[in-house]
Structure formats: C-alpha cells, structure tokens
Amino acid sequence: MTVHSGSCLCGTVKFEVQGSFDSFYLCHCQHCQKDTGSAHAANLFSQSAELTWLSGEGAVTSFTLSGTRHNRSFCKLCGSALPSSPLKGVLVVPAGCLDTGISMVPTAHIFTASKAPWDGDLGDVPRFEGLPE
C-alpha cells in the first residue's frame, strides 16, 4: 500500500495518507484562486485512501463557504492548506502539502471558464531557479 506523508509550513501538523489517489485536478474556479492567492489549486482526490493525523490535529481548522460545497482545511498557526473530507467518502489532499513525491500527473484542469486572465501561455516568461537578483 502506498503511504504519503505531509505537513504544514510551520511543522506543527503532520499526517500520513495510506492508499492511492483517484484523480489530480488543477482547479481554476474563483474560490480556489482566492484560497491559494494563485491561478489555481492543485488537489489530489481519493475515495479509498485513509488519513491519519500524526501531530498537531488540534491546529487544523476548516472553512466552508456559505451556500457552496467549497471547503478548505488549514493550519491555524501558519495557514498552510491541509487535507480535508468535504464530501462524505472523499479525501481531498492539496498536492503542495505532501512531503513525499507523487508520480501522478494532473488529470485535468477544471473550472477553466473562471481561469485568471493572466494565466495563459506562460512558456516565454523568464524562469529562475531562485529569486532573481
């Protein structure tokens, strides 16, 4: 069985996910743009994987946007996105909170009708391995 480990930015929250992911979506909806402060959220979904909190479970809090199914779990101390189960039987794991690598590539871009206008063909934008001087 595959085991993935993850944590928040400050290290207070640590967890393991046992099992496989069914899909990996890059969500461009406006809610995810607000959540991440970026062009999209990158979330892994599983209907069978099991989440185990190893430490800091008391620092995990969740927010559900009123009138929607949009849910986000995060560390109360540093704000890092963390796994959640907003729908019964579905585990959602933000890809960036995993400390172990994943070999899965994104399944699809979703909610592209809400895509940020600046999130287009970025192939010609300069790239730096670190902060440019």
Verbal overview:
The protein has 133 residues and is mostly beta strands. It is 5% helix and 38% strand. The chain has one helix and eleven strands, in the order βββαββββββββ. The strands form three sheets. It has a five-stranded mixed β-sheet. The chain has a three-stranded antiparallel β-sheet with strand order 1-2-5, with no helix packed on it. Strands 6-7-8 form a three-stranded antiparallel β-sheet, with no helix packed on it. The radius of gyration is 15 Å and the shape is globular. The mean pLDDT is 93.
Order of helices and strands: EEEHEEEEEEEE
Rg, please? 15 Å
The tally of helices reads 1
The largest sheet, given as strand count, sense and whether it forms a barrel, is: 5 strands, mixed
Low-confidence stretches: none
Q: Report how far the terminal alpha carbons are from each other.
A: 44 Å
Shape assignment: globular
- Provide the β-strand percentage band: 35-45%
Strand order of the largest sheet: 9-10-4-3-11
- Count of individual beta strands: 11
Oligomer: single chain
Layout of secondary structure:
Layout: E1 3-7, E2 14-18, E3 23-27, H1 30-36, E4 41-46, E5 50-55, E6 60-64, E7 71-75, E8 81-82, E9 84-87, E10 90-94, E11 108-110
Parallel strand pairs: 3-11
Antiparallel strand pairs: 1-2, 2-5, 3-4, 4-10, 6-7, 7-8, 9-10
